Amino acid sequence: MSPTPYNPAEDGAQMAFDGRMSYGDYLHIDQILSAQTPLSDAHDEMLFIIQHQTSELWMRLALHELDAARRMIAADRAQEAFKMLARVARIFEQLNNAWDVLRTMTPADYTTFREALGQSSGFQSWQYRLVEYATGNRNLAMLKPHAHRPDLMVKLEAELARPSLYDEALRHLARQGLPVPQDVLTRDIRQTWVPHDGVQAMWEVIYRDPTAYWQAYELAEKLVDFEDYFRRWRFNHLTTVARVIGIKRGTGGTSGISYLRRMLDVELFPELWSVRTTL
Fold first, then answer.
1. CB burial string 61-70: b at 16+ within 10 A, e below
2. How far apart are CA 182 and CA 14, in angstroms?
3. Which domains, ranges and CATH numbers included, belong to the chain?
4. pLDDT digits (tens, 9 = 90+) for 6-37
5. CA distances in angstroms from 218 to 7, 41, 227, listed in the order given
């Protein structure tokens, strides 16, 4: 004799939602699940769409956390920013894991729907561009793919007018009495970061005596932790593309693999990596 099925209502669970907010209502599940519109009959196009849509959702959260972290650092409340920076690192861990799912798609699978993508490409993601700009890689040439959308240009230009995460960290450390060079504090923040010997010397002071500068040391390691996962994400992007399309050009006209290899050389916080050699 089979047991009587469990009825959650007997434990007080709400079961009627006529006129009341449900799980689906709160999360707008219907809208989310109706946003997948394959343009071909290819089975794997659904995987491709969901992979990129979920990546955009994670990037939205990353931007939310980066915005809050910078505000905390600017207010000299760095300890409160540490949790946010740790969360951004974990977000990129999730984004890294997602490549494992996409890599189940073979070259033969991809060719069945690649033409349907037209000129669309991941490098056109405005949220990804905001992540790059927020963390300091301010390549102004990358505004061009968004020039057809004035609303996006407003967002991107607003980001460029704001100190990056690294700029805010260095300004915070200067206010704490650390020897951040003056030309760094007054630099043109619209421009991408250029490695600075004086900044590396400042980080050396911190790393040679972490006990004396514990909060600054912890901030440095939170930045390195985030960039570690971010660089892994770029590497996994490269290897996934190599596995699926080889050395063909990308759908958006980029050189594909060679473009992604160049991105691997970009360091957001270069002095935090080079200081390890000089210690």
1. ebbebbbbbb
2. 61
3. 43-121+165-278 (1.20.58.480)
4. 877 777 778 788 888 899 999 999 999 999 99
5. 50, 51, 14
